[in-house]
Write a structure and sequence with these properties.
The structure is a homodimer.
Chain A (H helix, E strand, L loop, with lengths): L1 H25 L4 E2 L4 E2 L2 E7 L9 H12 L6 E5 L1 H6 L5 H10 L6 E6 L2 E4 L8 H4 L2 E11 L8 E10 L2 H16 L2 H7 L3 E2 L10 E2 L1 H19 L4 E2 L5 E3 H7 L1 H4 L6 E3 L5 E4 L4 H8 L11 E10 L15 E11 L4 H17 L4 E8 L12 H17 L4 E5 L8 E7 L5 E10 L2 H4 L3 E3 L5 E3 L1 E6 L4 H11 L13 E5 L5 H13 L4 E3 L6 H10 L4 E5 L1 H6 L2 E5 L3 E6 L1 H13 L4
Parallel strand pairs in A: 11-15, 17-18, 24-25, 24-26
Antiparallel strand pairs in A: 1-3, 2-3, 3-8, 4-5, 5-6, 7-8, 9-10, 12-14, 13-14, 15-16, 16-23, 17-19, 19-20, 20-23, 21-22, 26-27, 27-28
Chain lengths: ~575, ~575
């Protein structure tokens, strides 16, 4: 596995060299900087003398192909600091790197192919001429030198490369499909959410339809939780600094906290998570062992001070809604509680058709400084998770170093309809917070007994979950999730009265139904309902009224013929109740 | 009305003189400061050489009575600045006041009764000896000189005074009753909410029971709104400064805003209200007149940077939950929308047994600088409200100067079971925000037409509403609102199985029911259920099982006898459905 990754990285980084070689040939006044391999491809950052655009990509790709013919291998050379700098006259970026890399007096490595060479630490393919053929430039973006706003803005060219043309074609096709499904486009098009310049980036505003979808999801999770003894609690979104000093979050998340100084000079923070607040509710009284587990659930917003450049649609936001829950229980109750949450996750994700696997997110024993608590506590916690995963016979794998700083996790990964994998639900065992906040119950012997905590978000962030769900379904939500489940389309004004009595009958049956009473052609009404991806269109004309039926049309041009309203209602209610896909 | 108020104020302020006279006689080293009339009484702030306590009140009251015998009248004297200061050696507070009051070179007025006099602007009773007899000292508190934390902490003595002994007795009785009902005590006792030192004052944490009650209230409001075409929207709790610069809130609420500087140096604020966010959702697209009104509703927290000393239980908090809604409509639709909201308010408050009256909160034409917008806009808005109040034949009165800075309001006042009046719901017409944010629809002529906005909170702040409701009911919530509606009390372990099947049958009927399975005496179980003010206790013993009945006991010792479960379920469901009081 590791070897395969290394091969891919070498391929990608080698292609970055090829891109730079072509750019330098086409525009010799360009200042090159760095070109690393990244997930799914590579990029190279340049300072161009004159701006270029994506329209220049064919020209660059053509030049890359031309140059590639002359590249038999990557040849290593070593230069002194001064010689290295001479290779880049007027290029402060490379000079900065050269000064850093040679700080200990080391020689600097350069790699040469054809007549192009560049400062480089190595990691290339053996036979570029043969192996680098299947590349493509993807997009152009601005990027600050070394990621800092204070530095020069450079031009970043992204590209990708694969061992075979087939793999490249598949990837490009997937990219195109993903772009069509992009939630950043589909969301506003389906009128689910919007952003406002005045409110600011990373702060989505939820329209009536989007709010409906959020609440359907949240209610679904809540029903699964309620059946397992969870209770809702409500918490303020701010707290005094002291809470996070005890929890340890103040130090760990300092940079990402939105901090507030009150008019009296107190330090507050907006909550980046909910556990310390839930702990304060738990800690309001002494508990008998008979009263445990206590299971608290809140759907509530958390806040992180993300950098503007890293924000993206609903995937990365500054205010996100967690469907969060915490279980406070005795050590020997944790396993049962874990299994309950596992079942909730299973039942929830089934309703979307995701294929799931689970990562046992363990701590990295080589970096104990990254984690709270001692090794004994960690071993005991991780052993329990492994046992559960084994008993559940799950598609599980271990992720060393993926644990939270306060405990190990089960992270569920969902594969979407495009084959992309997303980290979604998480169940976390926590034996550190109970120590820090001195959480206990009075046991059978009348003694204070240390308890454990379980963190259990099902969607995690509703925003992020919805970004995945919108793209997974390409906006075509199953009927149970669709904000509008059916729309009634009277053919002319004559049917409006009848159409409204159908509307009210369906509403009475709990169906989310609308009516399009506009004086427009039925063709236009159908087209617009299709655009909104409404599952069912009920066309009402003279004929239907006479026959006491509705002409049912499913989205995607499926004509279901004329049905009685009772028949259709029965059908759609069954579809909703079973959460059919 | 005004005259009566003035008389009361004179009475109260005169009694403050009397209090100070007694204190100075008892502890001559005390430094006097100020003693104004306040709502329901008066206070006087002192710097004592040695601390006193409420145990000293009888002694002070005795001295006040003694002194009162010598007070025939209040006699005005005028002193120069220097002479005035000589009256208060070593009293920096009085010197500060004297400097201020004589800044323009004016003489300073002193008022004398008996052998006591004090710097004073006047406003006293004519015949203190007769009129001041019916007073009582109430409590002692710390208070900063001039309300600023930076200043010396003084000792404030509160008292009250009435024209007759009967009025005084009534008031004291009401105070005692209010103290018994104090939500700050009852809330934690009924386990509805808690506060945490670590989270901070003014930030209530809602327990499962409290959250249940909040949600019952919120769902009630939502059902009333849903029936009238409202839609839920969801908004982040922060925003860029720019939003509030346009709305005008940045200037108006600057001091009360929790402000945030992001790591990138941007200025954000936590929202102190929701209208600008809702406006941004409305403004996501162009609207046809056919699509109006748009009615957006959010139950969401707002934040105000209140001073620690002003916080009080749920009545004054730093994070409060608004059941907020905004209607965006055409000018000629506003009246109908207002009436709809009026009906919601009426239906909601009826379920609590509050007696309602409504204040027409108008602007003060003498201070146009306090309000956004022009006089013409204000007249048109206020005329509409007056017309509606008249048509509704409401118990209405005018409150000049009580308007919001953006428009006039209808403020509903609820009289509770103690006769106290609280401002609760509010409906506000707003013709200024639409100007500021350029809100419009396309009218029949295809032109952009300015619309109006209506702000419509029903509870206002759920926290504050609950503080009122808890005290109004003395914690004895009507069954529809009680977090636990019935509790099943098996007499011994033998009935536990049967008791659980009753529990499940009742849960299946949507009743909020618990079971007390502890191995305790039935007497203790009943006492504790009474303490929790649970409406019904169902005692299950051998006899009940044999007769297939439940022995029903209502709170407050009412024995309802043995009923079949079906009969009891029918009874309680009817009680809940009709929201019977």
């Amino acid at each position: 596995m590791k070897n395969e990754n290394e091969n891919l990285n070498n391929l990608r980084h080698s292609a970055a060299h090829l891109l730079a070689a072509a750019v330098m040939k086409l525009w010799p006044n360009t200042k090159r900087t760095i070109g690393p391999a990244i997930e799914d491809g590579f990029y190279f950052d340049f300072e161009f003398a004159n701006p270029i655009s994506e329209k220049d990509f064919p020209k660059i790709e053509k030049k890359m192909k031309e140059i590639l013919k002359t590249w038999d291998k990557f040849e290593k050379h070593e230069l002194s600091k001064d010689d290295a700098k001479k290779e880049y006259p007027d290029n402060p970026y490379k000079h900065e790197l050269i000064d850093e890399f040679s700080a200990g007096g080391e020689k600097l490595s350069f790699y040469k192919s054809g007549d192009y060479w560049d400062l480089c630490r190595g990691g290339h393919v053996d036979n570029p001429k043969k192996e680098l053929q299947h590349f493509k430039l993807l997009k152009l973006a601005g990027a600050y030198w070394r990621g800092s706003e204070k530095n020069q803005m450079l031009t970043r060219i992204y590209g990708t490369v694969f061992p075979t043309q087939e793999e490249l074609d598949n990837y490009v096709k997937q990219l195109e499909e993903a772009e069509k499904r992009d939630h950043k486009k589909l969301g506003p098009q389906l009128d689910l959410f919007t952003f406002s310049e005045l409110v600011g980036p990373g702060l989505p505003l939820w329209t009536p339809k989007g709010t409906l979808v959020r609440n359907i999801l949240d209610d679904f999770v809540w029903e699964l939780r309620r059946a397992r003894g969870y209770q809702k609690v409500e918490i303020p979104h701010i707290t005094k600094k002291e809470l996070y000093q005890i929890s340890g979050h103040w130090d760990k998340f300092k940079n990402e906290l939105f901090r507030i100084e009150t008019r009296e000079g107190h330090e507050f923070a907006m909550k980046p998570m909910n556990c310390p607040h839930h702990i304060q509710i738990f800690n309001r009284k002494k508990w008998s062992y008979r009263e445990l587990p206590q299971r608290y659930s809140s759907t509530t917003m958390c806040y992180r001070d993300e950098q503007t450049g890293e924000l993206s649609g609903l995937s990365r936001v500054r205010a996100f809604t967690q469907d969060d829950a915490h279980v406070f229980c005795r050590h020997d109750q944790a396993e049962e509680e874990f299994v309950k949450i596992w079942d909730i996750v299973h039942e929830f994700y089934k309703a979307f058709g995701f294929k799931m696997r689970v990562r046992l997110s363990l701590h990295n024993p080589e970096h104990p400084e990254k984690y709270l608590g001692n090794p004994k506590i960690w071993k005991s916690a991780e052993d329990m998770l492994k046992k559960i995963a084994k008993e559940k016979k799950a598609d599980a794998f271990e992720g060393v170093g993926e644990a939270a700083f306060y405990g190990p996790k089960l992270d569920f990964m969902a594969k979407d309809s495009l084959g992309r994998e997303w980290q979604v639900a998480t169940i976390q065992l926590d034996m550190n917070m109970p120590e820090r906040f001195d959480l206990s119950c009075v046991n059978e012997k009348g003694e204070a007994e240390r308890i454990v905590m379980i963190h259990a978000a099902i969607m995690g962030s509703i925003e992020r979950f919805l970004s995945v769900a919108i793209e997974h379904f390409a906006g075509v939500f199953p009927t149970w999730l669709a904000p509008v489940q059916a729309i009634i389309l009277p053919i002319s004004e004559k049917q409006i009265k009848e159409a409204n009595s159908i509307l009210n009958a369906m509403k009475g049956n709990g169906i989310r139904v609308e009516i399009d009473e506009r004086n427009e052609s039925i063709g236009k009404k159908i087209r617009e309902a299709e655009m909104q991806k409404i599952p069912y269109m009920l066309v009402i004309g003279e004929k239907e009224i006479k026959e006491k039926k509705v002409a049912v049309r499913a989205r995607n041009q499926k004509d279901l013929g004329a049905l009685t309203l009772e028949k259709f209602t029965e059908k759609i209610k069954e579809e909703i109740a079973t959460k059919s896909l």
